[in-house]
Amino acid sequence: xxxxxxxxxxxxxxxxxxxxxxxxxxxxxxxxxxxxxxxxxxxxxxxxxxxxxxxxxxxxxxxxxxxxxxxxxxxxxxxxxxxxxxxxxxxxxxxxxxxxxxxxxxxxxxxxxxxxxxxxxxxxxxxxxxxxxxxxxxxxxxxxxxxxxxxxxxxxxxxxxxxxxxxxxxxxxxxxxxxxxxxxxxxxxxxxxxxxxxxxxxxxxxxxxxxxxxxxxxxxx
Amino acid sequence: xxxxxxxxxxxxxxxxxxxxxxxxxxxxxxxxxxxxxxxxxxxxxxxxxxxxxxxxxxxxxxxxxxxxxxxxxxxxxxxxxxxxxxxxxxxxxxxxxxxxxxxxxxxxxxxxxxxxxxxxxxxxxxxxxxxxxxxxxxxxxxxxxxxxxxxxxxxxxxxxxxxxxxxxxxxxxxxxxxxxxxxxxxxxxxxxxxxxxxxxxxxxxxxxxxxxxxxxxxxxx
DNA sequence: AAATGTATTAAACAATTGTTCAAAAATAAT
DNA sequence: ATTATTTTTGAACAATTGTTTAATACATTT
Lengths: 221, 221
Description:
Chains A, B: Residues 50-69 bind DNA. Two copies of one chain form a homodimer. Chain A is mainly alpha-helical. The first copy, chain A, folds into two domains: 25-70, Homeodomain-like (Arc Repressor Mutant, subunit A), CATH 1.10.10.60; 74-220, Tetracycline Repressor, domain 2 (Orthogonal Bundle). Chain A has helices spanning 6-9, 12-18, 28-44, 51-58, 63-69, 72-95, 102-119, 123-132, 136-144, 152-162, 170-186, 188-193, 199-220. The first copy, chain A, is globular and about 60 Å long. Chain A starts with 5 loop residues before the first helix and ends with a helix. Chains A and B meet through helix 8, helix 9, helix 11, helix 12 and helix 13 of A and helix 7, helix 8, helix 10, helix 11 and helix 12 of B. Chain A binds a DNA duplex through helix 5.
């Protein structure tokens, strides 16, 4: 890293922190804060989260949050960028594989996406809120992990659509796929709080959808 | 009523500015605060909204907010309950109509729901956030407008499903319907900010989906 | 052991928050 | 016109916020 870069040297105090050597094997404080921030931000959102909440979750003095991450906002941006990557980067690889058919991609995405959401069910709502009022930094992360129009999957679909071998418009197909995969997780509190279903049934349904959604999508094709 | 209630269009940035100026001078202070609260809460959420923000939006002294509504939280509960009603009560009537077939209900719900969301595109995300950390009062409003398991529509579907005249499980059908209708609005900032599509294309696609979603759903049946 | 650098703590900071309250202004009732 | 009631205002409040800073504890290097 360019320690001596004059641009960085302007703010020497901040840079000392930013370029701090992590040779210490006991860097658990920074890690603990980051993972605590992930938990609290995801649970309560940016505005409802305090620096002291994060420190309490990490069981550390609250000054350490600013010591390691300089500000609440910078820490949030970090967490949000990770969340976006977690949400999108997985399906990005699948959809850009040149050796699989569109049908195979759909099968893989459905299983992978739902498996991921079963582990991180709050991620979609968290990211959607973050995107709504996003900084330039976050928008950049979005573009880099964008998968909706630039993927090889969509390219394959557009080719089929041009030949008349695909009924549905590619963008509608992607919308339907993402919608059916994601919204149940976003809206699950509504189902659970009203007593419509319980958590056990919800999980079972999501397991079913791993194989059913590909079938429904293929009916549209 | 319906003067200051959720007046905003799909292009929330432009419309928010346009409608912010022309406030009804004849509206009472209480009404002005309520409609201002609707706008600010829906835009920024509960925690990021201050009583002074609401008063500024209503162009009134900030003490009047507590004078008329006793507390920020009570005002928020009021707005949230209205939002839930706005979101769910419409489709509730359609789905409980004993004189229409399931197919007819699907047609009506798709048009009505998308028309509503084109006028109030921020409503789903706002309500989903509200449900996630909801009070008993709000949960009650949810149950009363619950439509997912108690509706006549689902009853019709379960009867067909029992007779083997419906392939898809009723609950999955409802999930798919609501998902395909709603998620594009929740996730639209992601599409817009990445430059995948612009607002004009988005609106056009939503118009298409009014008639296409019923077709796709019927393929699953 | 001494010196140096890093990690952690506690205290303090100004700014902002929701809420209250008494006085003032406006309106209604007598 | 005088009184009574309601509406509006501005100031004040205690609590909480993110951030900074100086002092302390710990670790590593010399």
